[in-house]
Write a structure and sequence with these properties.
With about 180 residues, the chain is an all-alpha fold. It has one domain. It is about 75% helix and about 0% strand.
């Protein structure tokens, strides 16, 4: 399972690297053309789309790496019972939110089915906006991979959660995390 998760992270990492590269090249080309007096009518719109895609795919990558904002010190300082409950509720809320985002994103695609980009009328807006349900699905997959990996080490995780004082729980750590 760990190998599959690392592969998934690597694929998302290369997608993000690819998008960053394309965005940098596209903006550079746009600036060069504008400097020589032959502005490309489409480069602003494409750059903003690439930035949005980079944001959504980057979020999926961050989810796979467990890099999103959280408060692990606060959870670690909770008593054992609430610690387990909070962990389960948080995972359920994250998956539920992104499932809802994916469904609504898909519905938006149907609404935008006949629209096209202003500067590139041959490109449908639904193609551009497909990043919303696609990234939501990628984040759900990342979360599920993490949950399955954690279920495989469930005995150790439950022992940690049921411990009288969780390892790594400090008031300083909680204060530092809360200050973000």
């Amino acid at each position: 399972m760990a190998r599959l998760r690392r592969l998934y992270e690597k694929v998302l990492e290369w997608i993000v690297i690819g998008l960053m590269t394309v965005l940098a090249v596209e903006v550079t080309v746009g600036v060069v053309f504008r400097t020589i007096g032959h502005s490309l009518v489409w480069y602003d719109e494409v750059a903003s789309i690439l930035l949005a895609w980079l944001t959504f795919y980057g979020s999926a990558y961050a989810a796979a790496k467990r890099g999103h904002i959280s408060c692990p010190e606060l959870v670690a300082m909770m008593p054992p019972g609430p610690r387990v409950a909070v962990t389960i509720v948080v995972e359920a809320l994250v998956i539920g939110f992104f499932a809802l985002l994916g469904v609504v994103g898909w519905q938006v695609l149907e609404v935008l089915a006949t629209d096209t980009l202003v500067s590139l009328p041959e490109v449908p807006v639904s193609y551009v906006q497909s990043v919303i349900p696609v990234s939501a699905a990628l984040i759900i997959v990342a979360e599920l991979l993490i949950i399955v990996a954690e279920l495989l080490i469930l005995p150790e995780a439950l022992a940690w959660a049921r411990a009288e004082r969780a390892q790594g729980a400090t008031a300083e750590g909680a204060a530092r995390e809360a200050s973000h």
